[in-house]
Amino acid sequence: MSPIARPIVHDPIRRGGPERLVLALGSNLGDRHAVLGAAVERIRAIPGVFVRAVSPFVESVAVRTTGPDTDAPPYLNGVLVGHTYLEPHRLLDATVAIEDELGRVRTERWGDRTIDIDVIEVGSRRLADARLTLPHPRAAERSFVLGPWLAVEPDARLTGAGPVAELLARLETGTGA
Ligand SMILES: Nc1ncnc2c1ncn2[C@@H]1O[C@H](COP(=O)(O)OP(=O)(O)OP(=O)(O)O)[C@@H](O)[C@H]1O
Ligand SMILES: Nc1nc2c(c(=O)[nH]1)N=C(CO)CN2
């Protein structure tokens, strides 16, 4: 079809094709399995978001601003991979709304929470503004993100940082950041 004959398609969400999406989920308060399951269902229901795989949920020691804290309630963490047509800030609007619906209370930084949804990557976009940084700036340092991610995407690469398997191995051998 010549470019002139091409029909004009108005994409109400975003022009262009879908982009790869990686989200990380965490919960250390309440019925963690139920909350993470509810979050996954709500993410599946976001128009323009398509979920391809959800990792097993794994337990991890809570990391505070002061470091790992075995006295804090442990987290369940998981990673979801898929595709999205949403512009990243609209995606963040949707994930923040889900956090609010599921009872997230925002108190201290890295405090206990019923649900946390972090946007790890949207395609290979790199951006940093007042609301959103992509890729997520702390993903490469978090085994509770890299481990579940690797479980669903063995060849995964984190934009600007390299293969997830290598990043995780470095953390586990103590040679990471
Ligand atoms: N990639 C991202 N994913 C999610 N939120 C982000 C991202 N980049 C920036 N933010 C901003 O961070 C704000 C605080 O998010 P949140 O309270 O979930 O942080 P946190 O989970 O405590 O810490 P961390 O960002 O280290 O995971 C959000 O309101 C959002 O505007
Ligand atoms: N184990 C664990 N610790 C955390 C987590 C998390 O998801 N899992 N999220 C945090 C802020 O996003 C801070 N600390």
Classify the secondary structure makeup into a structural class.
alpha+beta
**What count of helical segments does DSSP give?**
4
Form type: globular
CATH architecture label of the domain at 19-133: 2-Layer Sandwich
Compute the CA-based radius of gyration: 17 Å
Poorly predicted ranges: 7-12
Name of the CATH first level of the domain at 19-133: Alpha Beta
Q: How is the biggest beta sheet arranged?
A: 5 strands, antiparallel
CATH homologous superfamily placement of the domain at 19-133: 7,8-Dihydro-6-hydroxymethylpterin-pyrophosphokinase HPPK
Protein name: 2-amino-4-hydroxy-6-hydroxymethyldihydropteridine diphosphokinase
GO molecular function, one term: 2-amino-4-hydroxy-6-hydroxymethyldihydropteridine diphosphokinase activity
Keywords: ATP-binding, Folate biosynthesis, Kinase, Nucleotide-binding, Transferase
EC number: 2.7.6.3
Commentary on this structure:
It catalyses: 6-hydroxymethyl-7,8-dihydropterin + ATP = (7,8-dihydropterin-6-yl)methyl diphosphate + AMP + H(+). With 177 residues, this protein is an alpha+beta fold. The chain has a domain at 19-133: Alpha-Beta Plaits (2-Layer Sandwich), CATH 3.30.70.560. 26% of the residues lie in helices and 28% in strands. The chain has four helices and eleven strands. The protein has helices spanning 32-44, 88-101, 143-152, 164-172, and strands at 19-27, 49-54, 58-60, 62-64, 67-69, 75-84, 116-122, 127-128, 133-134, 157-158, 162-163. Strands 1, 2, 3, 6 and 7 form a five-stranded antiparallel sheet that branches. Strands 4-5 form a two-stranded antiparallel ribbon. It has a two-stranded antiparallel sheet with strand order 8-9. Strand 4 and strand 5 form a beta hairpin. Mean pLDDT is 90; it is low at 7-12. The chain binds adenosine-5'-triphosphate and 2-amino-6-hydroxymethyl-7,8-dihydro-3H-pteridin-4-one (PH2). 2-amino-6-hydroxymethyl-7,8-dihydro-3H-pteridin-4-one binds at residues 26, 60-63, 75, 77, 110, 116, 144.
